[in-house]
């Protein structure tokens, strides 16, 4: 098909009148990509990049080809399902498209930890971990296991997939199709939800799943279940900057001791045991040869699968994770740096290039993110030098005001923290808050910092006789609880939360698509705390990027910028929203002023003036809710 034909197809699927300028750029670029092309795409949060990417990939797709959308967490599947709901046009639209032979069935794919029907019982009564069920379900006498079922495998898969899709499409008319609805669907079946999902994968043309499915074995199994080769698949990887955060696989000394008890003193186990007592970077040959690693893995998997008596193993031994941890440690041993640290050993994977290499045989791969800078460094870290890039910049920022206040030495730097600083910071916060027509997010760099200013805020409210309500994030607060309270509130709250916490990261606090948060105050800057292996990660990054300065920027400045952008992103969820970002830390001048285009504000009066201009004629929380 020509570009124009594909463009016409994309526009037919596009659910709005006209694509905005970001969406137009994205659609054009994806439609122009060569076969086996890879695109790194950056566009601002809220610019509608997911719908643009999805419509373009659907337009390019030919018969028998499929789309896999990969998101970070299961809850992040919902925004993608919402966009799908808009593309299909609700229940009626879905039926109509289906009757016209348009292949648009979707399937969210989750692991056993979410779909196993026995898990609640096994967790409670047999102390099973989620990981243990993953390995053990075939060994358990589970009546729901497919071979125990009287129906033939695959029977009724199509009507079932259809039923699930109609239900999700129907839900999309009123809002967002939810993962809860998917759970309800599987719980209503008599068979195992996990294995039923596998059968439905063949029927779906769009699969949404999470990052672990990018790993070799799982990816291979997914493609097999979908009945496609990798060159028939289009990948869309959402918020792909997250792929670079270093991941750790950890093994404890008790796990190795348990393996020695079960399998005897194999040389490789003894080496692991001895090395674990040290604190150093370990070379692979110090642990054992490739043959020894393979041998131990096969012994473990035999044992886990068959629960053999001769190893004197019991369900309890398996369920405490020892062998499962050892197995996942051995399976990733080639993919990162191995570090022994007193009774523990870790594999630190700093760059995702090895994991992603499998993907590059696909028909197209689109990595998308709201923050992908420096984009050339990402190309190197993803191991794809031929990738194309598209950076779609924000054009209209008149609905935003971003600034840092350089005032009375405000900062969250450790050395400057004092009772006087906490007091001054609180007073400044409380002076700015009344200017926000909707909820205000006050984000602290840590729980410790928040615990210092929280009582001062309460005292301020009491002594000034204010009616302001405060909602505080704690380690145990659930994000649903917080967002529900804010969505149903009839007066603005001060939400005292953590910059890298649940609320700042991605909870939607919206009313009919408009944000209920209109101001974000950063009470200091959330730099990542120094960690022991930062040097090792840095070394790996420098090696991958061949650029020490860029690696340093990547390790310190970029994570900070991302946290601030992500938090501020809560304020702008639609074209009608307005948002202010106020950073109470002078260090913003060095680290964020340029990249976030911050205005420097010298005193509170100047800040108040700017806030008055920003919020002129902007509906308050109450007005927004009252007007429906
Ligand atoms: S067959 Fe299904 S329900 Fe049974 S243990 Fe395995 S995952 Fe759980």
UniProtKB/TrEMBL annotation:
<keyword id="KW-0067">ATP-binding</keyword>
<keyword id="KW-0413">Isomerase</keyword>
<dbReference type="InterPro" id="IPR014001">
    <property type="entry name" value="Helicase_ATP-bd"/>
</dbReference>
<keyword id="KW-0004">4Fe-4S</keyword>
<dbReference type="Pfam" id="PF06733">
    <property type="entry name" value="DEAD_2"/>
</dbReference>
<keyword id="KW-0547">Nucleotide-binding</keyword>
<keyword id="KW-0234">DNA repair</keyword>
<keyword id="KW-0408">Iron</keyword>
<keyword id="KW-0479">Metal-binding</keyword>
<dbReference type="InterPro" id="IPR014013">
    <property type="entry name" value="Helic_SF1/SF2_ATP-bd_DinG/Rad3"/>
</dbReference>
<keyword id="KW-0238">DNA-binding</keyword>
<dbReference type="InterPro" id="IPR027417">
    <property type="entry name" value="P-loop_NTPase"/>
</dbReference>
<keyword id="KW-0347">Helicase</keyword>
<dbReference type="GO" id="GO:0003678">
    <property type="term" value="F:DNA helicase activity"/>
</dbReference>
<dbReference type="GO" id="GO:0006281">
    <property type="term" value="P:DNA repair"/>
</dbReference>
<dbReference type="InterPro" id="IPR045028">
    <property type="entry name" value="DinG/Rad3-like"/>
</dbReference>
<keyword id="KW-0227">DNA damage</keyword>
<keyword id="KW-0411">Iron-sulfur</keyword>
<protein>
    <recommendedName>
        <fullName>Helicase ATP-binding domain-containing protein</fullName>
    </recommendedName>
</protein>
<keyword id="KW-0378">Hydrolase</keyword>
<dbReference type="InterPro" id="IPR006555">
    <property type="entry name" value="ATP-dep_Helicase_C"/>
</dbReference>
<dbReference type="Pfam" id="PF13307">
    <property type="entry name" value="Helicase_C_2"/>
</dbReference>
<dbReference type="GO" id="GO:0003677">
    <property type="term" value="F:DNA binding"/>
</dbReference>
<dbReference type="InterPro" id="IPR010614">
    <property type="entry name" value="RAD3-like_helicase_DEAD"/>
</dbReference>
<dbReference type="GO" id="GO:0046872">
    <property type="term" value="F:metal ion binding"/>
</dbReference>
<feature type="domain" description="Helicase ATP-binding">
    <location>
        <begin position="9"/>
        <end position="285"/>
    </location>
</feature>
<dbReference type="InterPro" id="IPR006554">
    <property type="entry name" value="Helicase-like_DEXD_c2"/>
</dbReference>
<dbReference type="GO" id="GO:0016818">
    <property type="term" value="F:hydrolase activity, acting on acid anhydrides, in phosphorus-containing anhydrides"/>
</dbReference>
<dbReference type="GO" id="GO:0051539">
    <property type="term" value="F:4 iron, 4 sulfur cluster binding"/>
</dbReference>
<dbReference type="GO" id="GO:0005524">
    <property type="term" value="F:ATP binding"/>
</dbReference>
């Amino acid at each position: 098909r020509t570009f124009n034909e594909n463009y016409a197809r994309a526009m037919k699927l596009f659910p709005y009148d006209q694509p905005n300028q970001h969406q137009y750029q994205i659609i054009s670029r994806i439609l122009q990509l060569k076969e086996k092309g890879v695109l790194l795409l950056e566009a601002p949060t809220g610019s509608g990049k997911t719908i643009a990417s999805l419509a373009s990939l659907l337009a390019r797709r030919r018969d028998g080809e499929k789309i896999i959308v990969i998101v970070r967490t299961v809850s992040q599947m919902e925004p993608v399902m919402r966009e799908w709901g808009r593309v299909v046009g609700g229940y009626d639209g879905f039926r109509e498209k289906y009757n016209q032979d348009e292949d648009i069935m979707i399937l969210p794919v989750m692991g056993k930890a979410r779909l196993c029907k026995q898990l609640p019982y096994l967790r409670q009564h047999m102390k099973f971990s989620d990981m243990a069920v993953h390995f053990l379900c075939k060994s358990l006498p589970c009546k729901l296991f497919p071979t125990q079922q009287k129906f033939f495998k695959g029977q009724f898969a199509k009507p079932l997939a259809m039923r699930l899709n109609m239900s999700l499409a129907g839900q999309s008319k009123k809002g967002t199709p939810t993962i809860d609805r998917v759970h309800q669907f599987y719980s209503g079946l008599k068979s195992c939800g996990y294995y039923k999902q596998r059968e439905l994968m063949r029927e779906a043309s769009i699969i949404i799943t999470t990052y672990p499915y990018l790993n070799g074995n799982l990816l291979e199994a997914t493609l097999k279940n979908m009945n496609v080769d990798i060159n028939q698949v289009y990948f869309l990887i959402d918020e792909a900057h997250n792929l670079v955060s270093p991941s750790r696989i950890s093994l404890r000394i008790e796990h190795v001791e348990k393996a020695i008890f079960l399998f005897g003193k194999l040389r490789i186990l003894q080496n692991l045991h001895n090395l674990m007592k040290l604190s150093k970077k370990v070379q692979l040959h110090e642990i054992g040869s490739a043959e020894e690693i393979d041998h131990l893995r096969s012994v473990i998997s035999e044992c886990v699968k068959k629960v053999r008596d001769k190893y004197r193993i019991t369900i309890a031994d398996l369920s405490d994770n020892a062998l499962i941890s050892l197995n996942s440690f051995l399976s990733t041993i080639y993919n990162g740096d191995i570090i022994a640290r007193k009774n523990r050993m870790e594999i630190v994977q700093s760059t995702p290039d090895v994991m992603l290499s499998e993907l590059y045989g696909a028909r197209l791969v689109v990595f998308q993110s709201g923050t992908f800078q420096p984009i050339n460094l990402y190309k190197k870290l993803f191991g794809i030098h031929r990738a194309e890039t598209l950076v779609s910049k924000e054009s209209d920022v008149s609905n935003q005001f971003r600034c840092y206040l350089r005032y009375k030495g405000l900062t969250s730097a450790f050395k400057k923290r004092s009772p006087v600083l906490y007091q001054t910071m609180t007073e400044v916060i409380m002076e700015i808050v009344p200017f926000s027509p909707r909820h205000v997010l006050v984000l602290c760099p840590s729980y410790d910092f928040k615990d210092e200013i929280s009582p001062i805020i309460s005292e301020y409210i009491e002594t000034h006789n204010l009616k302001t309500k405060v909602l505080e994030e704690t380690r145990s607060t659930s994000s649903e609880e917080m967002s529900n309270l804010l969505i149903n509130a009839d007066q603005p709250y001060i939400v005292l939360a953590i910059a890298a916490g649940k609320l700042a990261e991605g909870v939607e606090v919206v009313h009919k698509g408009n944000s209920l948060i209109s101001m974000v105050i950063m009470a200091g800057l959330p730099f990542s705390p120094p960690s022991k292996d930062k040097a090792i990660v840095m070394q790996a990054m420098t090696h991958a990027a061949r650029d020490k300065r860029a690696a340093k920027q990547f390790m310190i400045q970029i994570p900070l910028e991302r946290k601030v952008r992500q938090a501020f992103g809560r304020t702008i969820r639609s074209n009608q929203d307005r948002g202010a970002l106020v950073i109470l830390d002078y260090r913003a001048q060095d680290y964020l002023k340029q990249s976030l285009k911050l205005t420097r504000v010298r005193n509170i009066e100047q800040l108040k003036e700017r806030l008055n201009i920003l919020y002129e004629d902007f509906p308050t929380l109450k007005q927004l809710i009252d007007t429906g």
